[in-house]
Amino acid sequence: MTSKTVNAIKNFVSEFLSKSGIHGFFYVGGALYVTIMFTLESWHRYLYASTVVAIERDHYYWNTSVPALTICPMKRLSEDRLDEYVKRKGIKDDEKQAFVDFIESLANSTYSNFDKIKNSTIADAVLQRLKIEPKHYLRLIYELTEDLTIKSGDIDNKVRNRNNQEFIRVTQILTEYGICYSTNNFFTYNLSTAYLLDNKMPIDDDFYLNVKLNNVRYGNLFDGEVTYSFIGFKTPISIFMHSPYETMSVARSVGYTQEAFEFETLSIEIITSKETRETFISQRGCRFHWESNLTHYKVYSKNLCISECRLELAYKHCKCIPHFYSNTAGKPVCNYKQLKTCFPQYKTLFLEFQDTDHGDEKVTCYCLQNCLDSNVIVENFKVLEGTKTLLGSSGSIMIMKRYPLVRFQREVIFTLTDFFVSIGGTAGFFIGCSVLSVIEIIYFFSLRFFWFFYGYRN
């Protein structure tokens, strides 16, 4: 900066101080500093602490959503599709069993059991001959898996969810435990296998064209006990229970069963007021499903965010990602040997995000809460012995007998109007500055400064 420019600025500041209508400007430096500090604090409050979670108690008027279930069958692949594939690809009789065992164990693999993948030299030879690379694993599993929600035959032959005389939609979805089935969920369409792999929305079975089909079942005090039955699985299953605003967490399985589980639950919901929906994400400290910042998912939920965090952690330690993710980012997919060797030694770290076996490593996933969610409380749980014999299938029954007396709502307590009022009150209290004074300052340091710098002095 030249001396001419510095002198021009000094002269301008001198003129401002001598001609300004703000009396005693020389003595308000300290007050101006305090005003700026308070203004910045108010701005920070507006951006990051403008909402609170309040408690509502008028429970007579609420419709509370019933918890969701995701069930993963332990036998994923269709025998008919396997036989057709083996015949079409020319896999020999003495190779078939080894190949089927490998693909089935791969389809049932996740972070807790990668070491259980069944491999052999025969299966390796088939994979090499058919040029099946790790990036083809998921597509192959998908093609060999029958969608049990649209399985041929009558309704009793399908995976379904019945609520009295009505039905609740069941969707085949892609999870960190492979291909599973989810019901009573608000956004399973966005997680469906067809959508993630082929960008196609899943189709409902023709049976549902003539019946009432709900996405999510609600209940209130006037409904009394609300229940649904998620059944139709012919093989052993692994069950995951979660909020209808969420997806399953692979680290939180309810258990493995060949029968049916019965859950008696209570849900406490958290909602977001209409005014809060219009705020920034930083202001409310949560995300809606449509506000996804994730790389591998087009929708957002906290569990999906944690899944992506786990994926990045796996990529960091093993230099590849498991096959059951929608790999839109183009990361290298692990071959089964990497899954069997690298992943088991970090199993605790990947599932719980802390590991005392490797230097007490801890990982923090920066995942915001869902703006709409519910906390599911299991009040009673039991295994229903003999249901497979009675119904011909296994599954789970969800019951909601009691309704919450409270729920939580995010509300805005510090709006943009409040911010401007805060600025005006602070400026008026410390320096007696009015709106006209602010306009005068802006004028002097914009238009006046421009013309003064170019020699205009009148």
Automatic annotation (TrEMBL):
It is found in: Membrane. One of its GO terms (molecular function) is ligand-gated sodium channel activity. Keywords: Ion channel, Ion transport, Membrane, Sodium, Sodium channel, Sodium transport, Transmembrane, Transmembrane helix, Transport. It is a multi-pass membrane protein. Its main location: membrane. The chain crosses the membrane at residues 20-40. GO terms for cellular component: plasma membrane. Belongs to the amiloride-sensitive sodium channel (TC 1.A.6) family. This is Uncharacterized protein. It comes from Polypedilum vanderplanki (Sleeping chironomid midge).
